[in-house]
Design a protein that fits this description.
This protein is mainly alpha-helical and 167 residues long. The protein has 2 domains: 83 residues; 67 residues. Helices cover 75% and strands 0% of the residues. The chain has 5 helices and no strands. Helix 3 packs antiparallel against helix 4. It is globular, with a radius of gyration of 21 Å. It is a multi-pass membrane protein. Pfam families: UPF0114 (PF03350). It is found in: Cell membrane.
Length: 167
């Protein structure tokens, strides 16, 4: 009976598979939005201000970082919690695939959030004349919180890895 319960619990990890696949639908939606923004600016390319173009480009960079984050979470999460990805040797394999444990994934997610927050904060500073100072202060506080959290998570991960290697 114990073995049956343990095997059943272990098999429930597959419940996460549709969640990771669902992230690919989010990636598709992000790609559509990305090209919608590109197509939207193309007719106005020669008349759009430099500042507006930079803001658009920052938005596109933001979307690409979120897309990369989705790929990382989707593939690493699948490999860490469900099953190894069986990729043909003839196909190109991402260098980090199979090397990222849950702790590394959390640190990459935290670093990506900091990068995304940095880009958002840069966008806010580019529009500083139109944004209330109180809002700017909250954006900065939030960004510093993300940076601090990422630093603490990285430090704690380093400590836990050091403790494991010491034993």
């Amino acid at each position: 009976m114990e073995r049956f319960v343990e095997n059943l619990m272990y098999a429930t990890r597959w419940i996460l598979a549709p969640v990771y696949f669902g992230l690919s639908i989010g990636l598709l939606a992000l790609t559509v939005k990305f090209f919608q923004e590109v197509i939207h600016v193309l007719p106005e390319l020669f008349t759009v201000s430099e500042n507006d173009l930079i803001l658009l480009l920052l938005s596109l960079i933001d979307m690409s970082l979120v897309g990369g984050l989705l790929i990382m979470v989707m593939l690493s999460g699948y490999e860490n919690f469900i099953s190894r990805l069986d990729i043909d040797e003839s196909k190109e394999k991402l260098s980090w695939l199979g090397k990222m444990d849950a702790g590394s994934l959390k640190n990459k997610v935290a670093a990506s959030i900091v990068a995304i927050s940095s880009i958002h904060l840069l966008r806010v500073f580019m529009e500083v004349r139109t944004i209330d100072n109180t809002k700017i202060l909250w954006y900065v506080v939030l960004h510093v919180t993300f940076v601090f959290s990422a630093f603490v998570m990285g430090y704690l991960d380093k400590l836990s890895r050091h403790d494991k290697s010491a034993h």
